[in-house]
Design brief:
single chain, de novo design (two linked rop proteins), 317 residues, OB fold (Dihydrolipoamide Acetyltransferase, E2P), alpha+beta, 5-stranded mixed barrel, 3-stranded antiparallel beta sheet, 8 strands
């Protein structure tokens, strides 16, 4: 493998036992309680005037209304993802063994975000899911359950994407580690999901990895709501000047650099290029790499990325 120049960090590839999950049927929900019989009769009219005749259907509706008005309303439930999901586009981000024959998988889905699922029996030799629950394979997934850890009932390989190889494969693991560590569970990010698919396709077609990764990192911070605007100075709200040097406050955005600053210094041109996703200038590539490494480290709270260490180790071979 050629020397790797990414500033990315590839999470140590999760150990993936050949999965083979048994399809687990969801237990049928308990039948609703039978409605109580409506026996209320219409009120009697005054003795002076005979009561008008009331049709049976009308009497039933009146009794229904009276009965329902006396029933206490059920308390509002907290928002849940739902008990059953079918045919959801997804990718496996990470998996690890669970008990003797099962796996726990971290799935990145288009409409439900990152979800944790138990793939029961996925390690058995004759499981229908053997070879399916692999990273970077587009899947159609189904699951049941309302708790944080739900049960996978089905997963099918969709196809249509080239496999990742060599450097592209390491970059893919870097993307997955970022998603696992920066995305909250059950928080939908459909735009980021589409960007992830596009990024995998670009890596598989050997597009320049540093540029592809910079675009994804920026999209990740933007879609999770922590990316500051790069084209305006936080101190004056004036537009960033291409020829001036800046530092980027992770919480606020760019400001002119000071002699005492220990944050990465970047030119205004680099910031403007990043906002336009224009990474043709080698100086923009180098400065954006340092800047994104700094911003991601801040969001990770200083936690190391396993994949970055792998890249460092490989570059020293």
């Amino acid at each position: 493998m050629s020397t790797i120049t990414l500033e990315a960090d590839l999470e140590a590839a999760p150990q993936q036992a050949s999965p083979e999950a048994e399809s687990v049927a969801a237990r049928p929900a308990a039948p609703p309680a039978a409605a109580s019989a409506h026996t209320a009769a219409p009120a009697a009219a005054p003795a002076a005037a005979p009561a008008p005749a009331v049709a049976p259907a009308q009497a039933g509706r009146s009794a229904d209304a009276a009965q329902s008005s006396k029933r206490p309303r059920a308390p509002a439930r907290e928002r849940t993802v739902g008990t059953k999901v079918a045919g959801q586009p997804a990718f496996v981000l990470h998996s690890y063994p669970h008990k003797e024959t099962s796996l726990i998988i971290d799935l990145f889905t288009r409409d439900y975000g990152r979800v944790a699922l138990v793939a029961k029996g996925a390690k058995r030799p004759h499981s229908a899911l053997r070879g399916v629950l692999q990273t970077f394979q587009p899947l159609s997934s189904s699951w049941v359950g309302k708790s944080e850890l739900r049960t996978l009932t089905d997963a099918e390989w969709v196809g249509g994407m080239l496999p990742l190889e060599k450097t592209a494969l390491l970059c893919g693991f870097y993307l997955n580690e970022l998603l696992v560590k920066l995305l909250a569970r059950d928080d939908a990010h459909p735009v980021l999901f589409d960007h992830y698919v596009s990024t995998l396709n670009q890596l598989a077609h050997n597009e320049p990895a540093p540029i592809v990764l910079r675009k994804f990192e920026r999209a990740l911070l933007r879609e999770t709501g922590v990316a500051a605007e790069l084209t305006r100075c936080t101190a004056t709200r004036a537009r960033v000047l291409p020829e001036q040097l800046y530092v980027v406050d992770p919480e606020r955005g760019p400001r002119p650099e000071h002699a005492s600053d220990i944050w990465p210094r970047v030119s205004g041109k680099t910031l403007l290029d990043m906002e336009r996703e224009d990474y043709e200038d080698p100086a923009t590539q180098a400065q954006s790499k340092q800047l994104m490494r700094f911003l991601l480290a801040h969001q990770l709270g200083g936690a190391p990325l396993n994949t970055r260490q792998i890249l460092i180790d490989l570059s020293q071979l």
